[in-house]
Structure formats: C-alpha cells, structure tokens
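Proteins fold reproducibly. Take a sample protein:
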Amino acid sequence: MSSYSPVGYIVTRIVATDADIGGNAQLVYSMKSAAARTDNHHHGDADAAAASQSLPFDVDSSNGAVYVTSSLRGVGGSGRSSPRRDYVLSVTVSDRGSPPLTAGAHNCRLTVKLLKIEIK
C-alpha cells in the first residue's frame, strides 16, 4: 500500500465466523504488533524496540476493518530518519461466550508493505 494512504484508509477487513448463536456468536477483534521492520532485513533488537512502539494501524473491534490511524510517512523508531516499510500485525478474534474463545496470533497475521512513492 502507499505510504501516502490517508488516516482512516481501510487496508483490509478480517473476516471470522462463529458457529454459536445469540450473544455467544458476537465477535470482538483486537490487534497488536507481531513485528515492525524498517526494511526487508531482520534487525534483531531494533525490531523488538520498534514493535513496542505505537502502530499506525488499528482494527475496528466490531467489524474487523484494519485501518490507518496516523501518518505512514513519519520518522522510523530509534531515531532513524527513514520510515518503516513493513509491518506484521497480529489480529486476535474473541467471541462473547462464557468463557470466551479466542483465535489469534498464530492464526491471523497480516503483513503490510509500504510502497515508496516519490513525488516530483
């Protein structure tokens, strides 16, 4: 996707289903960063530090839409001047059953790759 995508832009929609009925079938989506990278190479500790920072993405808890929450052209983590190009997001889906059942981290990983577009 473009690094110029505006705040609110929907990247994709995660779709999950639950065989339960009524309130137990209502699903809640949440997200965390699985990894964040500045390029296509692994950077070890730099990745861990970047992953702990706030993400420019979130997921709508009721419908699974993954959207942009802040500029994707910002400064990279750890004082780097280049923006991140890759984000690996982990979406977790839980039902409202008692106890709630959850599918996540290993089941739903989303990789977002930013394209570098030069405007002249």
